[in-house]
Design brief:
Layout: H1 2-43, E1 45-57, E2 60-67, E3 76-82, E4 95-100, E5 108-111
Antiparallel strand pairs: 1-2, 1-4, 2-3, 4-5
Length: 115
């Protein structure tokens, strides 16, 4: 009986250690994403993109979009996940606005209003 109590306390301790380790990582990841998004809104070049795929999985809604950076002969294809949306952020074939980093167009963010 005493051994099972110690085992239970040990398991609880590992859960608390896990929470103490992963919670800050998740928090700082979200802060980095938010800062990156805000920077892109301020200094990114805006252009239109076309949604080529849209689907939902356990992580949330996903869209894949394509756009051609201004002055370049390349097409950029990006996939973005929206974890908290209840419906698809855009439909296949729909044009959306994106902001991208001019030196590295792969770094882009869709400019969508929440649904």
């Amino acid at each position: 009986m005493l051994q099972s109590v110690f085992a239970f306390i040990f398991e609880i301790a590992w859960v608390l250690v896990g929470i103490a380790f992963f919670a800050p990582l998740i928090y700082f990841r979200r802060q980095y994403q938010r800062r990156d998004y805000e920077r892109m809104l301020e200094s990114g070049i805006r252009t239109s993109a076309v949604v080529v795929e849209a689907w939902k999985d356990e992580g949330g809604w996903n869209i894949t979009y394509e756009f051609q950076p201004k002055g370049k002969n390349e097409t950029v294809r990006r996939t973005e996940t929206f974890e908290t949306l209840k419906s698809a952020p855009a439909k296949v074939g729909e044009q959306i606005q994106v902001a991208y980093e001019p030196r590295q167009p792969f770094y882009s963010v869709p400019l969508l209003s929440p649904k």
